[in-house]
Design a protein that fits this description.
It contains 8 helices and no strands. The protein has one domain (3-114): Four Helix Bundle (Hemerythrin (Met), subunit A) (Up-down Bundle), CATH 1.20.120. The chain is 79% helix and 0% strand. The protein has 116 residues and is mainly α.
């Protein structure tokens, strides 16, 4: 199964992404290849747990934007909700949403890593 097909099965809107990337599949795949490093560089959970909500918001907002640009829809929706909950000073609710989305995020990262 191709990376694009696998990502579609995981909920990514590849058709939307292809429009955004002017139907340049290699560019889209190159940008997807950078996603695991971005996710690793922008942790959210550790900052929530440390009480550094400002950094957690910044990282969640960055990941929301990246997921949106790459049309990884389930993670875009999750990070949108996480960002909003953190801004509303609801870190425990944000943590719950993050815990729920981490398995999908791990599947997406594994798919990308396996197809580099």
């Amino acid at each position: 199964m191709s990376m694009v097909s696998e990502l579609q099965e995981l909920g990514a809107d590849v058709n939307d992404a292809m429009q955004r990337f002017m139907n340049n599949a290699s560019l889209y795949e190159r940008m997807l290849g950078k996603l695991p490093a971005t996710v690793n560089d922008k942790p959210v959970m550790e900052f929530i747990e440390a009480g550094d909500i400002k950094t957690a918001i910044e990282n969640a907002h960055t990941l929301k934007g990246v997921m949106g640009n790459l049309s990884v829809t389930p993670l875009y929706k999750a990070y949108t909700e996480i960002t909003n909950l953190l801004r509303e000073d609801k870190p425990e609710e944000a943590k719950r949403v993050l815990e729920e989305c981490l398995p999908i995020q791990e599947q997406v990262m594994t798919c990308i890593e396996n197809n580099k």
